[in-house]
Specification:
Blueprint lengths: L10 H12 L5 E7 L6 E6 L4 H4 L4 E8 L2 E9 L4 H25 L9 H14 L4 E7 L3 H7 L1 H21 L4 E7 L2 E6 L4 H16 L14 E7 L6 H17 L5 E3 L3
Parallel strand pairs: 8-9
Antiparallel strand pairs: 1-2, 1-4, 3-4, 5-7, 5-8, 6-7
Length: 266
């Protein structure tokens, strides 16, 4: 029942799939995860039916346990006894724990975004599908200035806030997207956009969202801008050339004044 998990893999994707497929015999549930290596638990997810929170009758607690580690627990409101659902909970535990390991391997530690390794693998998998899609490479303008003038803590702060701003903006767009930190002050977004017009308009929305953000701290008044290079993947273009096209567009944006979006014709 849990073999069809949404991609990219996510804890919430796993839990929502569990909810959809167990509703006939689990009326309500709540998932708790322990914080780091402590035994302090925090509520992560409550099912749409809040019975497990509002009423205590028929509640059962099962540990989330995998590879010798208890990393949380799930409270269930069900008429089934623990033995009847233990196999399902054990399987859920393994999937959630594996996602935790996958998260650490595929995420950038500073920003929490996908890292370069993940996005390259993601693009290689899309290459096989022969889809028409787009990529955008984003580079923060004169980023070295933040580190040299204000220190690396401020540089890290800018990177984290830019990541948050882009994530929030992407949630509001109608296109499917995957955002990653490409390296240093560079980011990359993969879109299901198949034409240059729509891609350019989307790039401008992202650029303006960064431009309009106040990056000020208690000590410094700060602004940030970004240059963006985009490309649409056509079926006869190899992945390496495709990425290079976006990179060349980014170079053009930087060379011709920065704080702009560029898509080149090749």
């Amino acid at each position: 029942m849990l073999n069809k998990i949404p991609e990219p893999f996510s804890v919430d994707g796993i839990i929502k799939t569990f909810e959809a497929n167990s509703k006939d015999f689990i009326k309500s549930f709540a998932v708790y995860f322990y914080k780091y290596d402590t035994k302090e638990a925090r509520l992560w997810y409550v099912s749409k039916n809040k019975l497990v929170i509002n009423k205590k009758e028929n509640n059962k607690e099962c540990s989330l346990y995998a590879r010798g580690s208890k990393f949380g627990y799930i409270i269930l409101n069900t008429n089934k006894n623990e033995d009847e659902i233990s196999i399902l909970i054990n399987y859920l535990s393994i999937l959630l724990y594996s996602e935790k390991l996958s998260f650490l391997a595929n995420r950038d530690k500073l920003t929490g975004l996908y890292n370069r390794g993940y996005i390259i693998k993601y693009l290689e998998e899309k290459e096989i599908s022969n889809e028409i899609y787009s990529i955008v490479i984003i580079d923060l303008d004169k980023f070295k200035h933040y580190n040299d003038t204000y220190g690396h803590n401020i540089g890290d702060y800018v990177l984290k806030l830019v990541s948050k701003v882009m994530k929030e903006k992407l949630k509001k767009l109608k296109y499917k997207s995957v955002l990653a930190r490409y390296g240093g002050e560079e980011f990359i977004i993969v879109f299901d956009i198949s034409n240059k017009n729509d891609l350019f308009n989307t790039m401008e929305m992202i650029r303006n969202s960064i431009l309009e953000t106040d990056f000020s701290t208690e000590e410094y008044s700060l602004k940030a801008t970004a240059s963006l290079g985009g490309a649409v993947k056509e079926k006869n273009i190899e992945l390496k050339t495709f990425i290079n096209n976006a990179d060349q567009a980014l170079y053009n944006a930087k060379k011709t004044g920065r704080n702009k979006s560029v898509i080149l014709d090749f």
